[in-house]
Design a protein that fits this description.
alpha/beta; about 350 residues; about 40% helix; two-stranded antiparallel ribbon
Length: about 350
Amino acid sequence: MADYYYYRRKVESQRRRRRAVVALLAVLVLLCAAAGFFWFNSEHGPGGSPVIEPAAATASPAPTATPAPTATPQPATPETATGENAAVFAPQRLLPAVNDADWDRSEPVEQTIDFEYRNTDFRMAALPQLGRVTTSHFDTAVLLGDSITEGMAIYATGLPNAQVRGYRSSGPQIIVNNATVHDYARNVDEAALDAVVAAQPDFLYVLFGTNALVTQGNEDSFIAYYDKMIEILQQNLPGVAIYIQAIPGVQEDVVQTRPGLDNARIRTVNNMLANIALTRGCYFVNIQEALAYPAGDQVDEYEAADGIHFNPEGYGVWADYLKTHTAWDRRNDYEGTSPYYILGS
């Protein structure tokens, strides 16, 4: 079964193939140019003009004389050539001079090979456990989401400096439309996208979906908004690492009053979210692994009164899971052994 590393290797393999094709074309162009250069020199001589044999001079008849023996002329060599002949044997540069400044840059390139991920299993596409970052990692992080994320600002989760942007009863459309929403934890009204951009995070953790899935049959609309939201966030926060979090499960009896929150349906939508993460170049974090049983039902010990949100213990488990499922980054500080030696510099 394909896992996270399989999908990452697949993307890298496609990139390497594109680079190899471009490099091969460049080499062929240079070889053709070099062949043309040498052909031109051989046809036109060292001075760049066609080689013309001198015409025999017409002279009046002279007494016949026995010619003195002369030495057979030897072709010039690089060691014996002098004067104009020396130019023929001057070293020739096969490749044009390279301007280093043209190579010392990095910029996005247009995708030339179409690809699509199918039948994505969010559990296999998720980040594995990789070291444990210190709490300071979240000092420059923003946690964006709905009322479930809002709990990160209400309870003592061990992430005191994380910037939480949790907006009740919201979904990804508030970012797409830059809608003005109320943040109850901070008691402010603000345009959602502007608030996230103004925070200028190094890392962005996103969790939406529970409110949208209350309505049945709207998966396609939700995924379309989610994908557009990620695109907008990447445009407004270039270089920021974005973590898409799995929608956590709910208590199994919630489906009786909210049929849309069926844990099987949540699992299907999580597969779609993992697909967005792979396509958009984001990280997918399977927080459901820590907050739900294997079947997807919320762990009883973390249950809040409504069977959807979490109690303080659940939020603490969630925060701890994020610490151990963070992609390696030079800016990260780790507790204990760093995974640096695994991933290199």
